[in-house]
Amino acid sequence: MRLGAIADDVTGACDLAGRVAEAGLPTTVLLPAPPAPGHPSPTTEHHEDVFAGGDDASACAVVALKVRTAPVGQAVDEATAAAQLLLDAGASLLYQKYCSTFDSTPAGNIGPIADALVALAGADGTVGTPATPGARRTQYEGILFADGVPLAESPMRDHPLTPMRDSSVVRLLAAQTAAPVSLVPWEAVQRGAAEVASAIGAGHTLVDALTEGDLDVIAAAILSAPRPVVAAGGAGVGTALARAAVAASGQRVDISRSQLPEVPVTGRLLLAGSASAATRAQTAAFAGERHTLDPLALATDDRALDRLRDALAARADHREPVLIGSAPEVARAQAELGAERAAALIEGALAELAAFAVHELGYSHLLVAGGETSGAVTARLGVQRLLVGQQVAPGVPWAVARSGEREIALLLKSGNFGGPGLFTDAWEVAP
């Protein structure tokens, strides 16, 4: 099986790729060049070798877009272009990767992208689930649970860009598409893959899942579906599809033994644009040097960003990790500037600091927290491909990439992922 996945942000792509690679399926993350003026879709010509042979062969390719909160038309255009790239390269199964907390407003992009992928692939619909038990995301009776509580009662309720005020993924998806949306309940999953496959309807089918075993049943149902389908969901179903492919081929690649290119340590930088509870806990637990990025200062003080550049340049030992994170009073900045402008100021500033650290100061290792921030950083660095390595935490792998003439190590994490000690522990297994 050649699994071709389209992810709606960079950290979601790394989440899927890290888990799939750990399951034993060689995986690459591709980052299209940003759209050129006058062109609606990202440039993908440099990714003709998606499933290249030889030492760089990958059975799974994940295209990392930055469309989770983009306008619907742009999101559909970019996802369609990415899917066409994967199909042209020989993908045998398309996978729509969205967040395990279904980050999307009623006017969001998950439904429109699903409709577009179905039409492009000539499929009858999508099948899957956001459930990713390894990240404590489960689905029962169509209700999505995050860390054991319904989504709308979790911290995602007050997400600044995609506040989740409904826990029913059936209702959430139905608001975004004219296609039918149906549910396969957990009891049917317990009766096996044949039962699930027979329950797949036209349009979009969401399936309950509480365990990894449930995901394996769903993967088997997708692979044996009586009609062509597009797989969809969080990283959980994609990982189960990888397990099925490895079991069918009898060939498993052990990424703990595979060697990413070694990146000599010349500088370690943490950039935290996420305001999630997990990232706040990781920031609080970090004992090293830190600096605060205030969007209100960025909006009113032309020297705010220069002072942070100067602080980085003045450091005596760049190899000691340093953290630059958004101000904790983000709600005040959002109230005064608007949520989108505040987020854009933070993302743009962190991306500029990443480029300064790498290309002016010679930093080699970057840990970036936040999906939108990771997308801004990789775009600014001109990263086109990530070679995925060992996970630091579930869904949080290190990767090696090229930025210009330099080879760098990147860890791009969802704001919600990882334990409190991640900002300290991650360096121990860095390439």
UniProtKB/TrEMBL annotation:
Gene3D superfamilies: Four-carbon acid sugar kinase, nucleotide binding domain, Putative sugar-binding, N-terminal domain. It comes from the Bacteria. GO terms for molecular function: kinase activity. Its EC number is 2.7.1.217. Residues 3-241 form the Four-carbon acid sugar kinase N-terminal domain. Coiled coil: none annotated. InterPro entries: 4-carb_acid_sugar_kinase_N, 4-carb_acid_sugar_kinase_N_sf, NBD_C, NBD_C_sf, OtnK. Belongs to the four-carbon acid sugar kinase family. This is 3-oxo-tetronate kinase. It comes from Leifsonia williamsii.
